[in-house]
Write a structure and sequence with these properties.
By secondary structure, this protein is α+β, with helices and mostly antiparallel strands. It is 16% helix and 35% strand. The protein has helices spanning 2-16, 30-38, and strands at 43-46, 49-52, 57-60, 77-82, 86-92, 97-99, 108-111, 117-121, 127-132, 135-138, 145-149. The strands form two sheets. The chain has a seven-stranded antiparallel sheet with strand order 1-2-3-5-4-7-10, covered by helices on one side. The protein has a four-stranded antiparallel sheet with strand order 6-11-8-9, with no helix packed on it. Strand 1 (43-46) and strand 2 form a beta hairpin. The longest helix has 15 residues, at 2-16. The protein is globular and about 40 Å long.
Length: 150
């Protein structure tokens, strides 16, 4: 019985998990299409998600069916197109300086790491907002990148 349930769960997971082949350009969220065109190397993993494996980056466009919008996974730092950690999200797992070019705009950031800080910066390198460990911040101005510091 346990083997049957495990096999059933694995089958359901495979059937329910979207793949890059499932997501044609016509079906992709417009923010996903924009990000994939803007930053090469990305792969659509669903109609609302894309990943850049070599960058350790993930983009998640908001869905009207989403139960929680603006969540930034533990150990990551994120940029959001909307204020208050809403809208399309970029999530990073490698602590370094990264581009936010795949987002049209950055209105908020979050740092779900247990230490350090994340800064939203403009093209001149000026700090527009800072999110310390386990916090978020609103961003005003035009953000071109995030700087993660341990």
């Amino acid at each position: 019985m346990k083997r049957f349930l495990a096999a059933l769960a694995a089958t359901l997971l495979l059937v329910a998990t979207p793949t890059a082949a499932d997501a044609s350009t016509d079906e992709l969220h417009p923010d996903v299409v924009y990000a994939l065109k803007t930053l090469p190397g990305g792969v659509a993993i669903g109609t609302h998600q894309a990943v850049w494996p070599e960058l350790g980056m993930e983009l998640t466009a908001s869905s009207r069916f989403a139960r929680s919008v603006g969540s930034c996974a533990t150990g990551s730092y994120c940029a959001y197109s909307g204020s208050g950690m809403t809208g399309t999200r970029l999530a990073f797992t490698i602590c370094t300086t990264v581009s936010t070019a795949p987002l049209r705009t950055v209105k908020s950031i979050a740092n779900a790491r247990s230490s350090g800080m994340v800064q939203a910066r403009n093209s001149a390198g000026q700090v527009l907002a800072t999110a310390f460990a386990n916090s978020s911040a609103s961003v005003s101005g035009t953000t071109v990148g995030l700087r993660c510091a341990l």
